[in-house]
Specification:
- The chain has 10 helices and no strands.
- By secondary structure, the chain is mainly α.
- Helix 1 crosses helix 5.
- About 35% of the residues are buried.
Length: about 250
Amino acid sequence: MTSFFNSLMSELIKLKRQPMLLVHLFTPLAVIGIFLAYYAYVPFSSVSKVEGYFQVIALAFPTMIGIVCAIAAEQEAAAGQYQQLLTQPSRLTPLASKLILLLLLGFGSTLLATIGFGAGFLYMLNQSPYSLGFYMEAACIIFGSCIFLYALHFFISLRFGKGASIGLGILESLTASLLLTGLGDYNWIYIPCAWGARMITIWIQYGASPGIPAALLLLRPGMLYCIVGTAAIMVLLGSWFRRWEGRKSFD
């Protein structure tokens, strides 16, 4: 346990030399400002505005995860071709600390994006139909459904490089946007990049409607696939990383 905390503290120190913290701070602030300015003039209903905002956040998540995982992996490559990850007595300790730091930053950024928007929508525009607790719950739903993508993109970044991770993230965001249409009504539960956008949409629609939408019938199996899939990819990532010897320069 001591080695894990030492490794985590080392990761925190590395943040001073990375743009990671700035990305997680200024990106949500910029998005909040853009949407609040836009929503101050458009005539849509308040519920539709909230739903649209959260859908955009969820759809952008795969691309952002691809970028931050690529930054994290490239930092390790530049620091000595992954030696700080590969030379520890326990291979899983540096991997766990790196992933946990990425998850903490991601969760903090998600909270900022949701609660910051909620506060502005509630107190500045006076349009929010929900309390701040609703926005905190939304942050947990969006972030929890995207943990799978962190493990996937960290593996892609380590094995194939930053270009593959970022490119895959963009493709996932496009795919998730398509699966928000009728194309994904019965298929989204099998596609991890669609979990966040679909779950938050169903959750908002269920809360706003007195009836139960048909898509809600897939919410429970979707959550089950998300939980089982996330646990499985974490185990697979750890198993692969214990045998990994670093990426060659020509990979």
